[in-house]
Amino acid sequence: MTGFLQVEKLGKAYQADKPVFADVSFAIDKGEFVCIIGHSGCGKTTILNVLAGLDTASAGHAFMDGREIAGPSLERGVVFQGHALMPWLTVRQNIEFAVKSRWPDMPRADLNAHVEKFVAMVGLSPAIDKKPSQLSGGMKQRVGIARAFSIQPKMLLLDEPFGALDALTRGTIQDELMGIVRETQQTVFMITHDVDEAILLADRILLMSNGSEGANGYVPGGMAEVVVNTLPRSRTRAQLHHLDGYYDLRNHIVDFLVTRAKAH
Ligand SMILES: Nc1ncnc2c1ncn2[C@@H]1O[C@H](COP(=O)(O)OP(=O)(O)OP(=O)(O)O)[C@@H](O)[C@H]1O
Q1: Record's InterPro entries (predicted)?
Q2: In sequence order, which residues have a C-beta less than 8 Å from that of residue 222 and are 6 or more positions away?
Q3: What is the model's pLDDT at position 172?
Q4: Phi, psi of 75 (to 5 degrees)
Q5: What is the pLDDT of residues 129-185, one digit of tens each?
Q6: Domains along the sequence of the chain with CATH
Q7: Cα–Cα distance, 199 to 174 (Å, whole number)
Q8: How far are the Cα atoms of 17, 212, 257 from residue 148, in angstroms, in the given order?
Q9: At the N or C end, where does the chain have fewer CB atoms within 10 A?
Q10: Of 10, 14, 262, which is best to mutate to test ligand 1, by the most ligand atoms within 8 angstroms of its C-beta?
Q11: Whose CA is nearest to atom 5 of ligand 1?
């Protein structure tokens, strides 16, 4: 085993003769940001759920830090597309709940300081005592991100966390996430449908193909290609499209999605 996260020959079949995907292997190093892109139904969420310990694979194994993933753990923070906040709790209480699960004996003063630090990190200090119903979609998603970071997980798993946001809010939160990830050197696995988002955030982009009927029968989906992002890590959203190599990278991924992702 080499990577901090190691996925070996993972497969998932709801129907034995038609696995959604098969033989998916990849590794993620500590501090690396990896995005996965593929058409709807190829199995991205299933893979993320297996990594989160919320689902089991039909074949293969996933290891984090040398141990097989066998169930949910506070060592992994998960952010879903829907914010999944508890509506009856304030921002502070939502995050506090997670922090207390991780460190049940943390003294009250430390708990307050810890929660406030992560709320401030996503720019939500003025809204700390508001309930989710009083927040915009972008703010709720920020709370989800703060909550995931607040348990200081060894790995962050993000399932299209910005999918439901408008373009402007999405851009702002992408920038915030990038800043926090760089600062904390967090290891991240993220699903996105947005090619530019992947190019902005990811060190490597995993391209996944869908299962399809071929001339010789059904071919399961799988990992078609791993694209290394060669753009400088200091890239920002504003200058992304001015960088040498950006269009080549973008065209390569878009070509994959248009021509290869649905039959390999
Ligand atoms: N419980 C289930 N029973 C049967 N089939 C399922 C079940 N859950 C998922 N699937 C199927 O498995 C496939 C992969 O689903 P998954 O949600 O992982 O795809 P995805 O790539 O994340 O899609 P999207 O981008 O639309 O979220 C889909 O074809 C889906 O219909």
Answers
A1: AAA+_ATPase, ABC_transporter-like_ATP-bd, ABC_transporter-like_CS, ABC_transporter_ATP-bind, P-loop_NTPase
A2: 21, 22, 23, 24, 208, 209, 264
A3: 84
A4: -80, -10
A5: 999 999 988 889 889 988 988 998 999 999 998 887 788 888 888 888 888 888 888
A6: 1-46+53-75+158-187+201-264 (3.40.50.300), 85-153 (no CATH)
A7: 12
A8: 37, 36, 30
A9: N
A10: 14
A11: 14
